[in-house]
Amino acid sequence: MPETGSGASPAFIISRVPFRDNDLILGLMTRGDGPVSVIARSARNSRRRFFGVLDFFIVLDVVRSPGRGGLDVLVGAEPLRFFPGIHESLERLQAGQSILQAVRNVSRDAPFGPGMFDRLVESFGELEKAPSAAAHMILLETVFALSGELGHAPVDGKCPLCGLAKTAFSINGDGIFACRECCRPTGGCVCQVSFGQSPDAGLYERPVFTMAGGDPPGPADVSMIVEAVVAGITGHHSPGGGPDGDQPDEDKGQHRQGQHW
Ligand SMILES: [Zn+2]
Description:
Strand content: 25-35%
Largest sheet: 5 strands, mixed, barrel
Helix content: 25-40%
Number of domains: 2
Number of strands: 9
Low-confidence stretches: 1-5, 237-261
Number of helices: 7
Bound molecules: zinc ion
Oligomer: single chain
């Protein structure tokens, strides 16, 4: 039987669940078709088929064919690129897992194009080289890019709310990005993001994140911001508590933000 189906395309695994005795149900983020679910038959009892490649942080060239019930069958998976450095530091691994979790959450509702796929692969490459103490910043930059790709964060210097060109924005406690003028009435600005050229001449203009107190966000700040931004994208806010329940004092934040404002 020819292995035609949807053809070969780059993909990486975003979820992985054992099924029946020997199968795996995989959530794949494909470059061409966005998120798809596949069943990998006999993936757990064969040392030849798919051996060692059906894992996180591997870009695969996958071949799938249509199956029953909307679940494609994984026919082939050849590794294209590994990111072993992600597995060598707990901080990098946690940041990588948080990236995958954010992708899982937003991909239910949002369209995913090849540009976003490429950006995520770029993030894996940066994450595996990042110092452990900076891994959370790769997570924050990635989720910021994800939000921008989906139209929720400023990508071309324009405020998503008023459309005016600005150089700095605030991230609200509800995960909404806004310029200073738009942020004031909505309140709850928790983190400022401004734009400057990457010192290492990277591929994209790097955002600079600053907490209300003037410090760069730490790992706990990043967890809070990422949760809020993902909630802002999906429109699902946790009732009570969570990012909505604990907003910093707006006036204090604005007086302590330094020269940017
Ligand atoms: Zn605005």
